[in-house]
Amino acid sequence: MPQPDRLDMIQEEWRRERPDLDPSPQAVIGRLHRVALLLTERLVEVFHEFDLSEGEFDVLASLRRAGSPYERDAGQLADHTLVTTGGLTKRVDRLEARGLVERHVGAADARKRLVRLTPAGLDLIDRAFTAHMANEHRLLDDLGPDDTAALEPILARWLARLDER
Q1: 91 close to 83: Cβ distance less than 8 angstroms
Q2: Distances from the Cα of 48 to the Cα of 42, 54, 57, 92, angstroms
Q3: Residue 50 pLDDT exceeds 70
Q4: Mean pLDDT of all residues belonging to the chain
């Protein structure tokens, strides 16, 4: 069992100050929140090595996952990323200015604007994703394969329930 941590101390203080309330959810939610913040810090460190923000990485990765010719329209990009449509335009503008993506008119529908990876964008996202996967493997190595395997279905089930609301 790990040593008592900040969450243990916080729960003990709440038990003392508010014995009428049960602070036990903090054992899971507080720790999960801290884990999420720390994971984000460690993920973003790798994105910054490639001069990308988290949102820019997400846009490039979505285009790469689309397969050749590595393009999506704005609606598809919003559906396949964690970026809001409002933030999407700014990110695409920045990526376009860096020569990583280009906008063009759809062949089937001239009203449709598509965003496509350029060769430089394809090269960058392939290198960044390789580093990202190595980083995620390193982060999960701290848990080991048994804990990782046990945690994945629990988180998937919980996320599905939260997404329903």
Answers
A1: yes
A2: 10, 8, 10, 17
A3: yes
A4: 92
